Amino acid sequence: MAVSTVLDVLTMACLGIRVHRLGASLPPEMAQHALDALNMLLETWTVDRRRLYRVREVVVPLTMASSYTVGPGGQVNVPFLPVAIQPGFTRLGGMDYPYDPMTREVYHTCISWKDQGGTVPSAIYYERQTPLGSIHPWPVSGGELHLMVDQPLGPLVVNDTLSFPDGYKNALTLALGKYLAPTYGQTLDPVYLDNLQQAESALRKRNYEPAIATVILPTGYHGHDPTFIIHGGH
User: Fold this and answer.
1) 51 half-sphere exposure, CB direction, 13 A CA radius
2) How is residue 117 annotated by DSSP?
């Protein structure tokens, strides 16, 4: 993980397009302009499904419901719409029980009894919609869900500290430089553009999620156990 401040990224982007001197402080007006551009770039990347995020833990009291809205003003009231969810756990009676994220295909084709009760959820499906998403724990239960969500990165302020997944800082800095260059009348040389292309190509490979084939088992297979497809038959 690469750790830096937003100001570091702004400064490096301006250095890269030769509108700032090495060793000098970035002037406030230039920093603000670059920050505005960075936040617009992050918004574009989010829409383009590039996964630049912070992982945040959100505690959800479970009430035996089969779904909970999540986002600003939702039942799980957080000031952002999660990008995705990560593996987490449910705490019950002083013990922590892990859950795994579940795909839409598995939830809709392999879970026939969506209101089935249980001790704690073993899987959770996140349905990302606007303005509110929904989480669907399965089986439904009580307890305290510790939901690990991908929080969109932005809007940012100059002094924010960032922990980037490998490869993101370089790609974001170069992309910001390209975004800023026309403002300053700068033409980017082929080496800069080639470096940006390689960095973005590496991100596309990192974020590639292959399609998952869903196998629909015959009714009654494996002793009527509806969780068979999730836990792999063990």
Assistant:
1) 18
2) B
Q: Which of 153, 119, 145 is nearest to 227 (CA)?
A: 119
The Cα-based distances of 130 to 60, 67, 72, 174 in angstroms read: 20, 16, 11, 31
CA distance 211 to 203: 18
What are the tens digits of pLDDT across the range 80-104?
999 899 999 999 999 999 999 999 9
Nearest to 11 by CA among 39, 28, 31, 33: 31
Tokens of 156: 């940012």
pTM for this structure? 0.61
Query: By three-state DSSP, how is residue 146 classified?
Result: strand
Domains defined along the chain, listed by start = 2-50+154-207 (1.10.3230.20), 53-151 (no CATH)
190 CB burial (10 A radius; 0-12, 13-18, 19+): exposed
Please enumerate, as own/partner, the contacts of 216-223 that have beta carbons within 8 Å and a separation of 24 or more: 216/109, 216/110, 217/110
Strand stretches in the chain, DSSP E: 2-5, 53-61, 68-71, 76-77, 85-92, 95-102, 123-127, 133-138, 144-152, 161-164
Which tokens go with 172?
């974001």
Can you tell me the distance from the alpha carbon of 130 to that of 125, in angstroms, rounded to the nearest whole number? 16
